[in-house]
Every structure is written in structure tokens, then in C-alpha cells.
Design brief:
Strand content: 15-25%
Strand order of the largest sheet: 1-2-3-4-5-6-7
Largest sheet: 7 strands, mixed
Low-confidence stretches: none
Bound molecules: zinc ion
CATH superfamily of the largest domain: Ribonuclease Z/Hydroxyacylglutathione hydrolase-like
Shape: globular
Order of helices and strands: HHHEEEEHEHHEEEEEEEEHEHHEHHH
Distance between the termini: 39 Å
Number of strands: 15
CATH topology of the largest domain: Metallo-beta-lactamase, Chain A
Number of helices: 12
Radius of gyration: 20 Å
Length: 329
């Protein structure tokens, strides 16, 4: 009976999302925590497996993505689901590999077999099924797999809990862990020590965007964004989703006269018109056009109609609100 009530709530949420009556907002606000909790349970996992099956019937993936070659290492984006990315990090000499957020175990296994690589570990940025949804089946398939995830994140099939400033040594790879709560409580970001460094940002940073604050305050999220801003400016950012079109369109509408945003918008439109991927991005550029990294900028405060002395966390809260209400079509 309890599950039935929860199911009714979830269905009601889905229907109400498309309704515009004045009473819808307070009702969805009330139902959201129930729906969100549901998503994190086994019922959410069942929905994830169902959506994997639905996506399998599609012949064309959401994006055409190119690998990034580094010294002796290859980073390969794998487009999965409707807009997610998993990433392989491959040592070209030993063929040892780790995979970030392998939510579609079938796609991961296919790549491992085709390329004859040795999958050693999973790096999970957070517990949501569109990131961690492949852990259980992959661990069953490859029993020696090490499964990393935030210590307080309840990541599926986790064998190696990690915390802030931990360093993971895996064969040739050295990977630093940054605790970045906000989207979820135990969200972490992985930084591959390479030249340039590669940052797997999960749902913290997207191209010109930032993840929703499901389990954190603007202050928490701001502190997490600041961690990324302090990394070397030549770092490559590999986000968990292909959200660039919507995120840069939003930035472009908010800052119509701001050159870095408008230049990125022209590029993203061109890329996405032929389904080319927009990842990775470079931190140095992200610092210029990503509005979520401009919370201390007067240009952004003017665009949001906020006084220049507004604290960055308040700017972030207002920016999030504007983004959540932004409709791309
Ligand atoms: Zn998420």
C-alpha cells in the first residue's frame, strides 16, 4: 500500500510538470521530496533499468564524441541514456582502464570487449542511477572491480569509500578526490593527475552550467564550485551530461551583450546542429562564460537585478531560480 501511494505521487508529479495552473507549484513543491526519495530507492533503480531498455532501441546515440589523447593515456567519452556521459580512462601501454559513472553496463561491457581493455575500477561521482546505475551489474560481471564513491553517498556496489583529498593509485593513474556536496550530500569529483589535469565533474559543473541543489544549500554548492575554480586553469572538465545547448542558451539570454558567452553560444549551436559533443571544456574558458562561476561579477549581478554588494551565495540562489524557470522552447 505504501509503495502504491508513492507511485501515485510520482505519477502525479509527472502529470503536473506539464500543467500551468496557479496551484501546481505548491503541490509539486510538496510532492518533490517524495518523488526524489523514491528515485534513490530500488524502485528508482527499476525505472533506470527500464529507461536503459528504452534507450537501447534507439540506434543513434545523443552525441558524437571524440577521445582526448594525453601522454600515454586516452580519455574516451561514451554517450549513454538521453544525455549522460560515462568516461573511460585508458593506459595505452598496459590497456588497464577505469570508467567514470558507467550507468549503462551493456555499453561499457561492449566497449571493454571490443577494445580489449582491462577494466580495473569504477569511479562514481554520486549515487543517482544515471551515474551509478551500472555498478551492480558490472561488479557481478567483473568481480575484481574496485568501486569508488563518496564515503557518505550510499553508492551502489561500493567497495572503496573515498573522502576529500584522498588520492587513488590505480596502475599508472593517480587520481585526486575532491568532496563537492550540493547536488547530493556525498558528491565527489575526480581529478586525474595528467598534463593537462582531467576533472570528472559529475553533476557539479556542466558546460556553462551547474547541477541542481537537491541535497545542499547555495552556500554548500558555492564552496564546491570554488574548489573547481581553484584548480589549474588549463584543466579539462568532463561533465556528466551533454547539457551545453540549454545551459549556454540560458547564459546567452541572461548576458546578451557579454562576448565570452555569445562566442560560446555560436560554437555550441554549430556543434549541436550536427550532434557533435561539447565535452571537454577548458576551466580557463569556463571561468569566463559559465554564469555559475561568475557569482562575484557585477555583470551577472546587473543581469539578475541585484545590488553589487549581494553575497555570492545569494547571487547563486537567484541564478539557480532563474535557470530553473528558464524554458528553452
Ligand atoms: Zn545527479
Amino acid at each position: 500500500m505504501f509503495v502504491l501511494i508513492l507511485l501515485v505521487c510520482a505519477v502525479a508529479l509527472l502529470i503536473l510538470r506539464k500543467t500551468t495552473a496557479y496551484w501546481v507549484k505548491p503541490v509539486t513543491k510538496f510532492l518533490f521530496p517524495v518523488g526524489y526519495w523514491l528515485y534513490t530507492t530500488r524502485l528508482g533503480y527499476a525505472f533506470h533499468l527500464r529507461s536503459l531498455n528504452k534507450e537501447k532501441s534507439k540506434v543513434i546515440p545523443h552525441s558524437v564524441a571524440q577521445p582526448t589523447p594525453l601522454s600515454g593515456v586516452l580519455v574516451v567519452p561514451i554517450p549513454i541514456l538521453s544525455d549522460n556521459y560515462s568516461y573511460f580512462i585508458i593506459d595505452l601501454t598496459s590497456k588497464d582502464a577505469v570508467v567514470v559513472d558507467p550507468a549503462d553496463p551493456g555499453a561499457i561491457k561492449t566497449y571493454v570487449v571490443e577494445k580489449r581493455i582491462n577494466l580495473k575500477a569504477i569511479l562514481t561521482t554520486h549515487k543517482h542511477w544515471d551515474h551509478a546505475g551500472g555498478n551492480v551489474l558490472l561488479k557481478r560481471q567483473y568481480p575484481d572491480l574496485q568501486v569508488y564513491g563518496g564515503a557518505n553517498e550510499n553508492v551502489a556496489a561500493q567497495t572503496h569509500p573515498v573522502k576529500d583529498n584522498d588520492t587513488i593509485k590505480l596502475g599508472k593513474f593517480t587520481i585526486d578526490v575532491l568532496s563537492t556536496p550540493g547536488h547530493t550530500t556525498g558528491h565527489v569529483v575526480y581529478v586525474l593527475q595528467s598534463e593537462p589535469p582531467c576533472v570528472f565533474t559529475g553533476d557539479l559543473i556542466f558546460v556553462a552550467g551547474n547541477g541542481q541543489m537537491f541535497e545542499g544549500t547555495p552556500q554548500t554548492m558555492l564552496a564546491s564550485i570554488n574548489r573547481i575554480q581553484q584548480l589549474p586553469s588549463n584543466s579539462l572538465l568532463f561533465p556528466g551530461h551533454e547539457y551545453a545547448f540549454n545551459d549556454v542558451k540560458f547564459a546567452s539570454s541572461l548576458l546578451p551583450s557579454y562576448t565570452p558567452v555569445q562566442m560560446k553560444w555560436q560554437w555550441v549551436k554549430q556543434q549541436r546542429s550536427i550532434k557533435l559533443s561539447t565535452v571537454p571544456s577548458i576551466l580557463l574558458e569556463e571561468l569566463k562564460y559559465n554564469p555559475f562561476m561568475l557569482t562575484d561579477s557585477d555583470i551577472l549581478k546587473d543581469a539578475l537585478g541585484l545590488p553589487h554588494h549581494t553575497p555570492p551565495a545569494e547571487v547563486l540562489a537567484r541564478l539557480r531560480q532563474r535557470k530553473d524557470n528558464f524554458r528553452t522552447n
